[in-house]
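#struct-queue
[09:14] JT: dropping the first one here, sequence first, then the structure tokens:
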Amino acid sequence: MTWMRRFLLLIVLASVVAVGVPGCAPAPPPAPSTLTYRAAEDPPTLDPFRAGDDNSLVYIHLINDGLVEYVPGTVDVRPAVAESWTLSPDGLTYTFRLRRGVRFHNGREVTAQDVVYSLRRALTPGTHSSKATFLAMLKGAADFSAGRATDLPGVASPDPATIVCTLEYPYGSFLTILAGEAGSIVPHEVYDDPSQAYLKHPVGCGPYRFESWEPKVSLALSRFPDHWTKAPAGGIERILFRMIFDSTTALEEYKTGGVDFTQEIPPGQRQEVARSLPKDLHSGTRLSIFYVGFNHRASLFKDHPLLRRALLHAIDTEFIVRVLDEGKDTVASGVIPPGLLGHRPGGAPAYDPDLAARLLAEAGFPKGRGLPELTYVTNDTTGFRQIAERIQSDWARIGVKTALQMSDFAAFMKALEAFKTDTAAVYRFTWFADWPDPDSFVTAQFGTGGVGNYGLYSSAALDQLLDQGRREPDPAQRDALYRKADTMLMEDAALIPLYWYGQDVLLKPRFTGLKLSPLGVFGIPWEEVTAAP
């Protein structure tokens, strides 16, 4: 080859390299992966210490981190903002060592003093926190949360990387409380704002940071690039929550691609969805209970335990679970669900209308004569309405008349406050575990003054038993104590348990790595889910 030919060939090759060989050019960077998530409505609050509903907790658990967190898909605990911890032999003192380099979304590094500030804020009366009872085992918490003391000796930071939590008594589930929203770590410079701007623009140190919120339309979170875990390749970079109240509309949006995730299948469509979308449907159990509660302040219920038992045996719970809920849930035998200490397997109250009629007569109301009309209070969704109408029908068979009082959720919660008066009312209620412990169910809902005790049930014998259970360090002994408490509630017909929830969600198959949490959808670690293009 002559020098001229070599020269011309080099020019041609250089031109090819400059222009690029078809199919070999560097691919453009992929667009950020977005998960479009159906939310039923706006969150009532984005303050981690005020939130108690699923809708708020979904955002709060993504925006905030604590010293520890749940292992995905379980209720086991692993390190998070704390890289390690130790527990004293007497079970009273937890010492945490902070992970280095953890940052808030505003860029500031997290220190031990931020943890102290956050736990104090969760217990400060002016915060109007719903978490004070969660942390009641901390030394000095009772006086501090009641405003009787300004010192909280149960929380201290001897140096910028160490936090010491001291308890009044050993509490085996303390770490699981810190893994939830009560353990959220927030920056004081944001949450001391008297204008409470943090309610519209929260700041935490979690895997996602707040981006925008258009009320009644959407709320968006984006991946926090400086999160201590560092984002995995292919992870979800942005979550767009679309507010779609109606579950049927949400399902249609899912089918047509308007949303990638929905946590509610409309009543009567579960079997069809399982048949038509088998790769999208993910099912699991949840630590929860759905029940009918009594207004125990009302003399009608307080003075007539036989009436309560008559109403219990008159409800065909199997029909509600098998037909109305299409088998998603499990008939409940008591308050404490499977998977927790104190759970009593089997022995669900029998549906027996003949027994119910006899008990009603023994209570002094044969065939319902002399019994005032009961008011059944519920929020108005299709599923809750169907259950209310079925219970109304079941009670009518033994002569009990019931008026259904249905409203939106906000009005429903206000109606529960009216139970402080002598009102012959019953109510549907759902309770999900705040942390995986029987204390979260029995003490919260049926202990005197419990945060979820809307029916105002009170029993000195039960309170004493629950106090023993809370302070007992031995798991086997705790199990026995809470089983006894659950049995006591059922023997007194303090409530009518209907079912323990299952959970169904739909997720587009291009998203992989989903792990449902026994605590509910707010426990899903979306930062560990990957998305195909």
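[09:21] JT: and here's the second one, same format:
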Amino acid sequence: MKTQRTRPQHIQGVHRRELLKAGLTAGVALSTWPLHHPPALWGAEAGPPKRGGILHVRGWEPVHFDPHLTLDFKMHCTLSFVYSRLVRHQVGPEVQAGTFMVEPDLAERWESPDDTTYIFHLRQGVRWQNKPPVNGRELVAEDVKFTFDRFLSEQANPNRYMLDAVDRVEVVDRYTVQFLLKEPYVWLVNALAYPWSMWIIAREVVEQYGDLKQPETAIGTGPFLLERYEPNVKTVFRRNPDYFRTGQPYVDGVEWLVISDESTGLAMYRTGQIDCGPDWIWSVRQQDVDALKQSHPHLVYQDVLNNVTGVIYMRTDLPPFNDVRVRRAISMAIDRQGIIDGLGTRGAPTPAVARGLVEWSLPIDQLGTGATYYQHNPQEARRLLAEAGYPKGFQTPLHYTGGYGRDLIDAVQLAQQYLKDVGIEVALQLQEYGAYVATTFSGKFEGMGMGPFGIAWEPDLVLYGSHAPEQRRNIGHVNDPTLTAMLKEQRRTKDVEARKQRIFAIQRYMAEQQYYVYTNSGIITPTWQPYVKNYAPNLTFDYGGRAAALWLDR
């Protein structure tokens, strides 16, 4: 019987600096990028914890509050303040960004007696937040079973594919629950750590409200209680006095502010109205970094390599995109470095697994013959289109949203021009973010789409879900039996090195097929006020966990 605690399957003690030095993209060493690092571990001199104060940060407006009914990252970020998971990614100042160390959360330990059984032993004495209808009762194994029974049975759950290897969840006793698998799935513990639909929910709340879409249903065992929700303005959280992590949270509350205008967010950060950067992972846009450093050198800055890829996706089940020559032509039409330069950002071309997950992501120049299709070559793109029967190109819609910020809008316009240069006339279809998530990002579209895609906390999340047939995240409608077999085989491979080689082979095959045209992974610069202590960024949706671990020393 093998007991597992905090050791992750995908990080073998490699220091982040070594990971960055190991990564090459298109022959360019990632370590040559001008990455900014604090002079020392920023939590080392934090001193003893200090209680009190309100953390003011940029947040988002959720589409609703039901974790099993949407892919919306804005909602899951919001829910991270309220809920807990069985296991989670480590938070705190010792975290090296880009590493996703799995540690206990509601489960204090777990074990795997065989390849298809995982047993989780719960912490005893964990209390639900003291709100009706749960009223602070103890969390037990039945709650875990109810959560994952709903997760697996809810037909509208777009993340159900994450646990499709699970046959059933059984209660062993009051504080023990086991997952029985249909087949070996080596990533199960990693998947249960995702801050994305894996929140443990209460039966009474679902029974009373029917679903969890209303803010009143956000009742969990997490570090904060949802005190007030003001649509399109803010969500206010207050400290959960019964949180099971001793002493946490240290702040009295969090104001999660909806700031739709990026310039307004930056101005609020400059003037101290918010405590952390106004962009994704509490960062600032790359275009604003240098000016902010000059005017506010006292702020803390940390560069991290993104674990999200930019992608052009298409309906590969329909012409003309069911022809590999067309997909390759689209890839060769895109000037990836031109997009980076045009946006004024830092980054490099990326394969299917984002470059931020360096241990698992292949450099472009190691993609074999597939590396050819990452080269900007309009002449060859036009030749491929002609060979596929489109000598004059074709017309197609391209769907996108402004919900990810203006950089995406600019990138879409650049891509439109590159495609036009090879004869592909793109009609841009701008969508409101909620509509985009419900339709295009769920595979309900015609033609093409473009946006960030494939957040990588480990490689299976971005590979299996977006390429295996009948998966809700397979928005490109890919159906390739050879690829499906490769994806399933890596899920069964226990030896880490052998699994890594299989994942490298998958990336090479994907580069040849170009079912998704991956563009770039970039640099993100999280930044925070110097009085924010015991904090380090990590590229997950768990803002609540990070907020609970920090304190304010004004």
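[09:30] RK: nice, looked through the second one.
[09:31] RK: The chain has two domains: 2-8+41-256+529-552, 309-523.
[09:31] JT: good to know. The chain has 16 helices and 25 strands.
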